[in-house]
Design goal:
three-stranded antiparallel β-sheet
Length: 146
């Protein structure tokens, strides 16, 4: 009896580990897609085990994902895509006998700056005297205490 109970428990637990369930994929950061095999599976249902610990031969089934173009079709040249850019420019040469526009009016502008006139300064001798005489009446810079 114990052997039969143990066998039933063993079979029940191992069959649950082999069952493929489904997962609802909700990205951690809004706006950052989760790509699986070229399909954006954000907010989609993924059926089957998928990850580093699973076998490489098992591919998940995605319900509700949208295909993501690996090379966006933009009208510009990006060297990282590895494609050769188009050759030359797409110009339309006007005919030689076309009506020319009237010439533009002449335009000239100039800017200038100058200093404001300063009032005349008192004349300071180029070579000042060697000795400066102080007043003799006692009202010099050291006479504050009197």
């Amino acid at each position: 009896m114990r052997f039969a109970t143990a066998l039933v428990i063993l079979l029940g637990t191992t069959s649950a580990s082999f069952a493929d369930g489904f997962d609802l994929v909700i990205p951690m950061r809004p706006g950052v897609p989760i790509i699986v095999n070229g399909v954006d599976v954000s907010y989609a249902v993924v059926e089957g085990d998928y990850g580093l610990g699973q076998g490489a031969h098992r591919q998940p089934t995605v319900y509700g994902g949208r295909y993501v173009d690996s090379e966006p079709n933009v009208g510009h040249y990006y060297p990282s895509l590895g494609h050769q850019p188009g050759y030359g420019r797409m110009e339309i040469e006007p005919p030689a006998n076309r009506k020319l526009p009237k010439p533009a009016e002449s335009y000239h502008d100039s800017w200038g700056a100058q200093s404001m006139m300063q009032p005349p300064q008192p004349e300071v001798p180029m070579i000042p005297p060697a000795v400066i005489l102080a007043p003799r009446d006692g009202r010099g810079p050291h006479a504050y205490g009197r």
